[in-house]
Amino acid sequence: MAIKVITDSTSDLPLDIAESLGIEVVPLNVHFGAEVYKDRVDLMPGRFYDMLINGDVFPTTSQPSVGDFIDVYERFAHDADGIVSVHVSEKVSGTMNSARLASQQAKADCPIEVVDTYQASMGVGMIAMEAARVANSGGDMNEVTLAARNAVTRCQCFVLLDTLEYLQKGGRIGKAQAMLGNLLRIRPLIIVQEGEVHPLGKERTRRKGIAKLVSTATEFAPISGMAVMYSTSPDEAQAVAQDLSRLMEGDQEPMTLQFGPTLGTYVGPDALGIGLLSAKSG
């Protein structure tokens, strides 16, 4: 038996990567009016962005229930020596609370450790991947947990938004702030620090915004793991990833992947982001 790593769909982990590393992904819920979808289960990114851009109903999101996590923990506990459950920052989602309550209530024959990454998107994903690699190499419960917590100290996630409209509609910023940003045609950049979303900068053009993304990533080099995320602009993400490959250790290349429905609800179309794991200790 081995240690099982579990995360949630705010990690934006592509399904093939999660499967290859043995990571179980618990989906959040995306609501379009009365319709409820499971993130990346019955609502994939392509369909989601079409509904977001062309539909007349704005989506909302909700965390997995305690029961959802209990079901997952009990399903894997029989064949595991332990479970390390790695999740989106408690300060931006109720997912951690659901996972924590479930870890206390589940009828599991193995220990369950719930880790707050203080991150979102591939900030979460990078930490889950690091924990899974240690688990897959035979690490015990303590070693996998320590790998996750060490990765928390080295992880960064920052995003260039095309508009503040979706953060405002999602209740993450005030209407006046969004209106002012759109009036001035500002391209805002945000970063996740200590579990909360903070401003990183404001640029008047998309070109300068992308340059800011690249220069920020450079500050954390050398980099042991990186993903360039996009909502609707894959070609830009590929170009940024190619530029940033010079910062990677060894012969690694950055991944490019799409923001899933949960994150897409808040970042909106034409968002670009970077999630990375610095090789330098935090």
In short:
This protein has 282 residues and is an alpha/beta fold.
Account of the protein in words:
The chain is an alpha/beta fold and 282 residues long. It has 2 domains: 2-27 and 64-152, Rossmann fold (3-Layer(aba) Sandwich), CATH 3.40.50; 155-278, Hypothetical Protein Tm841, Chain: A,domain 3, CATH 3.30.1180. It is 40% helix and 27% strand. It is built from 11 helices and 13 strands. It has helices at 15-21, 45-54, 66-77, 95-105, 122-136, 141-152, 165-169, 175-183, 206-218, 234-244, 261-267, and strands spanning 2-8, 23-26, 29-32, 35-38, 60-62, 80-87, 112-116, 155-160, 187-193, 196-203, 223-230, 255-258, 272-278. It has a 6-stranded mixed beta sheet, sandwiched between helices. A 4-stranded parallel beta sheet has the order 2-1-6-7, sandwiched between helices. α4 (95-105) links the parallel β6 (80-87) and β7 (112-116). α3 (66-77) crosses α4 (95-105) and α5 (122-136) runs antiparallel to α6. The longest helix is centred in the middle third of the chain and has 15 residues, at 122-136.
* Count of helical regions: 11
Order of helices and strands: EHEEEHEHEHEHHEHHEEHEHEHE
Question: The CATH topology of the largest domain is what?
Answer: Hypothetical Protein Tm841, Chain: A,domain 3
Q: Architecture of the largest domain, CATH level 2?
A: 2-Layer Sandwich
Radius of gyration of CA atoms, rounded to a whole number: 18 Å
Distance between the termini: 31 Å
Mean pLDDT: 92
Form type: globular
Helix content: 25-40%
The low-pLDDT segments are: 172-181
Please give the domain count: 2
Task: Quickly give the structural class.
Answer: alpha/beta
- Biggest sheet overview: 6 strands, mixed
Percent in strands: 25-35%
Spatial strand sequence of the major β-sheet: 10-9-8-13-11-12
Task: Provide the CATH top-level class of the largest domain.
Answer: Alpha Beta
Secondary structure tally: strands: 13
